[in-house]
Design goal:
By secondary structure, the protein is α/β, with parallel strands linked by helices. It has 19 helices and 14 strands.
Length: 454
């Protein structure tokens, strides 16, 4: 990266932290120091802060205080640093496993995840005596590394900005990091909420104006240019279809808009068959992303079609209603209705990304917005009392913040229970009677209204 571009990057990111994370032995501290020097920024190593807090080495902290005490102080420091600006931060290997740490750091700026193969990590840490999670000889260390990586791999994989460090000198890793950061500039000011899943993870990206960045966001997440299907209904496609298609085309994709009729009454297997026909006519292959552009009904149908077409293709959510933004687009549940009831046929299909542009709510009818508030209230009851109190007192003052706060509640729940085996059932608050009300009204009562009644 030349001096001019480096200056541009430094100026763009002046108010944002840059956090270097990843497994032990990937070079976080070394790379962080060098990166901070290149960008003329303060450098903070979280492990060094913990050592200063306890007044003893980390291995001794684990021995004397236990891992729980270590993690508590680590979380406190993560939150403190996330409230500052313009830092380069190096985390410990386990810091971002806690979703609260991950979200706090991600909200303050980009997270760069350094990776390495097991043998590389083993070679780098074998002689170290200050690794409390790696006791024993080389083979014991190898076994512990493999076990820890299995536990943490999904979290690391959920971070879209990654640098493989195998065979690279620190300066080369810094250079690749700078190139990644330069490519990430289009999301300045964006709220990114990482969502770990059993198969890896994805980001929920929130910012006004993101429809115009959809193509870049997909490219940054490794979705190869080629055919792409935008699934919508005619009304929403008329408002936003061309904007999304133009963004995709600018990023090298070949978008086609596929439409299905509007409304819950059309969330049927017949509509899914119609989507398959449109996908085939457009020449979609197994690498082609299906993008759901619309409310909860469109997201359900687009996701189910993506889960089943060619045994599964990439899926992206671009919700356009408040209800879909805060609820339906998060968690990977997709499906269609049968005459006997709602969502009786479906699949779990995690998206590659959820792209939320609150500006699209300018065209949302007032009754649809109020219906979406029912899900926001539900999330406030479940896990965000402050959100509930703010809504009760004055209503939503900032739509972007409202959406982000509500989304974080659902992310916390679905991360803990991705397949609805336990706590996730709390998200069904109001839904048992709500679905019945929808069915007997022949879907004349909106989903959010039915949930509020339920």
């Amino acid at each position: 990266m030349d001096t001019h571009n480096l200056h541009q990057l430094s100026a763009w990111a002046a108010q944002r932290n840059i956090t270097i994370t990843g497994f032990m032995g990937t070079g976080k501290t070394t790379v962080g120091r060098l990166l901070a020097a290149r960008l003329d920024r303060p450098f903070v190593d979280i492990d060094e802060q913990i050592v200063a807090h306890f007044g003893k080495p980390i291995a001794q902290v684990f021995a004397d205080e236990g891992e729980e005490a270590f993690r508590a102080v680590e979380s406190q420091i993560c939150r403190q640093l996330a409230g500052q600006q313009g830092l380069v931060i190096a985390t410990g290997g386990g810091a971002i496993v806690d979703p609260r740490n991950r979200e706090a750091l991600a909200a303050s700026g980009p997270l760069i995840c350094l990776t390495a193969e097991v043998e590389t990590i083993l070679d780098r840490v074998e002689a170290a005596t200050d690794r409390p999670l790696l006791p024993g000889d080389r083979e014991q260390k190898r076994a512990n590394i493999e076990q820890l990586l299995r536990l943490r791999r999904g979290v690391y994989a959920s971070l879209p900005l990654q640098v493989a460090t195998d065979g690279l000198e620190p300066e080369a890793i810094v250079q690749r990091t700078l190139e990644l950061l330069a490519g990430d500039q289009e999301i300045a000011g964006m709220t990114r909420i990482p969502v770990p899943t059993p198969t890896g993870g994805y980001d929920i990206c929130i910012r006004e104006g993101l429809l115009a960045e959809a193509g870049r966001l997909l490219g940054n997440r490794g979705l190869a240019p080629g055919k792409a299907a935008i699934v919508s209904n005619p009304a929403i496609a008329a408002h936003y279809g061309e904007a999304v298609a133009g963004s995709l085309a600018a990023a090298g994709y070949e978008p086609v808009i596929c439409t299905v009729p509007e409304g819950e009454a059309h969330k049927t297997l017949a509509s899914i068959r119609a989507l398959y026909d449109q996908f085939l006519a457009a020449g979609l292959d197994r690498r082609s992303p299906v993008i759901g552009l619309g409310g909860g009904v469109i997201g359900d149908m687009a996701g189910f079609a993506a889960a089943t077409y060619l045994r599964g293709v990439p899926f992206v959510q671009i919700p356009t209603s408040l209800l879909a933004m805060v609820d339906a687009s998060v968690g990977g549940k997709t499906g269609v209705d049968l005459p006997q009831g709602k969502n009786l046929v479906g699949a779990f299909k995690q998206p590659e990304a959820v792209i939320i542009d609150p500006a699209v709510m300018a065209t949302l009818p007032g009754e649809e917005f109020r219906a979406g508030l029912a899900e926001v209230v539900k999330h406030g009851i479940i896990g965000a009392p402050r959100l509930f109190r703010e809504l009760e007192a004055a209503g939503p003052a900032n739509l972007t913040q409202l959406v982000a706060d509500a989304v974080r509640v659902k992310v916390e729940v679905v991360t803990e229970d991705p397949f609805e085996q336990g706590r996730r059932a709390t998200l069904n608050l109001g839904h048992t009677f709500g679905h019945a009300i929808e069915l007997v009204s022949q879907f004349q009562v909106r989903h959010g209204e039915a949930v509020a009644l339920g």
